[in-house]
Amino acid sequence: QVQLAESGGGSVLAGGSLRLSCVATGYFYRHSSYCMAWVRQETGKEREGVAGIDRDDRTTYADFVKGRFTISRDYAKKTLYLQMDSLEPEDTGMYYCAADFGGTFCSSGTENLRYLEVWGQGTLVTVSS
């Protein structure tokens, strides 16, 4: 069974950068059409999709992070990354790594969180002015 574990969160000032990592364990390779995603949740708000990357390395981003965040993966290390630059206080929240084994999240839009099947426990990102 696939399990995900995030790391890399922390506290930064507005305009700063962080790189989040998500390590996958288990038989992830069995899912050929999978999509990996980053999702965030601000305190008191609903979770929102941030970015996704499919098996062909095609990426999709929410409008509020385009040009600032970059999602990527390292197949050998079974690790997903989210490089976050030009961080704003509005980016504060818990960031989760998630997987869609059908690949629909990456093709349908970052708002479709219902397709995500496996989630990590999250890593906290705090951006202050």
What features would you describe in this structure?
The protein is mostly beta strands and 129 residues long. The protein is 4% helix and 48% strand. It contains one helix and eleven strands; from the N terminus they run βββββββββαββ. The chain has one helix spanning 104-108, and strands spanning 3-7, 10-13, 18-25, 35-41, 48-54, 59-61, 69-74, 79-84, 93-100, 118-119, 123-128. The strands form two sheets. Strands 2, 4, 5, 6, 9, 10 and 11 form a seven-stranded mixed β-sheet that branches. A four-stranded antiparallel β-sheet has the order 1-3-8-7, with no helix packed on it. The longest helix is centred in the last third of the chain and has 5 residues, at 104-108. The chain is globular. It starts with a strand and ends with a strand. The mean pLDDT is 93.
Q: Short summary of the structure?
A:
This protein has 129 residues and is mostly beta strands. The protein contains 1 helix and 11 strands. The strands form 2 sheets. Strands 2, 4, 5, 6, 9, 10 and 11 form a 7-stranded mixed β-sheet that branches. A 4-stranded antiparallel β-sheet has the order 1-3-8-7, with no helix packed on it.
